[in-house]
Amino acid sequence: MEMAEKNGWSELLSGANLSLLTVISSGIGLHAFNQFAVVTALPVAVKEIGGAAFYSWAYSLYFVGSVAGGVTAVLFRERFGARGVLLLCCLLFSLGSILSAIAWEFLWVVVGRALQGLADGLIVAVCYSLIPAGFRSGLLPKVFAIEAGIWAVASFVGPLTGGYATEHVSWRATFLLSAPLIVLLVAYTTIAVSAERPVVAPRKPLVPLLLCLAGALAFSAPSAFEGAGLRAAALLAGAALLWASLRAGIQPSVGLFPKDSFRLKTVLGSGFWVLFLMSYAHALGSVYLAYVAINLWNHEPTFAGFIVVTMPLAWSFVAMLIGSLRSARLREICLHYGPYQMVPGCILLGLGLASGNWGEMLLGQILIGSAFGMSWAGISQAAMEAAPEEERKMTGALLPTVATLGSAAGAGASGTVAAASSLVENIELGDVTIPMIYLYGIGVVVSVLAVMATSGLRGERP
Hints:
Number of helices: 20
Shape: globular
Low-confidence stretches: 1-7
Radius of gyration: 21 Å
Strand content: under 5%
């Protein structure tokens, strides 16, 4: 009974644990709110100031910025401390928000989103890096359940308030809605995060870091090119650069990535692959979801926001249920079988967007969200616990970054498919069946690969 009490909510929601949890929740809440609040504003911004050819860039460069922030988070934390990094990122995020809000051309929205992404990636990665050292293992399922709840509230409020602001004020106002969360994060970071002594490590991560960022950019860039040959070359170059970055970054003298990163026969490597592939499949289908719903099926931005929000709501609701399970065996089953729901989810979402059936769109979104809700926390905990003690902080910071890298690649691929299948032109003609077959067909294939990658998560854990 005493041990059950120690594992209970009272321990987590009191004292130093509560203070740290508040900081982490503020950062993750800002990430969720920002990620979903602007999805209904971007289609309206394109309609007003033009720039449809660069539409997917507002997503892909945001994700590239997040990758840059996530990969460098541990290095910045070592040199400036978690408090310094979080406060600096709040300033950088605010700058990106203001730049997007006053943009006179869509490319400036893209630049603002890139700055937001860089700050967002650093904030989330630093918050995740605080988890393994700040809470003992028995509390981790509840920590992830709390964060799922925070994600639920922020991701629910985000699209609806964003849609309302877009409809009744301006799409520009939507980019300023995150200001209260920035103020909250600054306040709690100042109160709860202690100053850390700088660590000057003898590592030389510059080359693999530049290779990683160049690879992420190449992965997200194909939509900018006209010819199929250039698009294919960009994808191949991105894969080669990321592979080179990984090989160099796992060297002990560099210490940029855990040594088992993306090794399929290890728990940590398989977990990275599953998060990457699930995020890739989701981004493929989510980038143009609101765009098609608003510009083809004439849904109001608020209703389009409701369709978008069903995915994170399902994710959060299911994650809270999984986090409350007492049986470790049941949580393990959910971890392995969650990704299976991505396949019917992608199919239903594609069918719904092609036909205008919003019921199919909602059900597809619910299935995709449930897949993440069943698997994300379990994969994160398994990867953290499988990592050697000296790599746990790095692993915790990289988990959301790996998912973001998948989202960057998926967003770039969605732009490529949209351009190759003339999605914008087909919207004007009133028939997007062919683009949806390509987009969500690829999503199904990637989801199947994610299911296959879960087999490595059955390996022995420490």
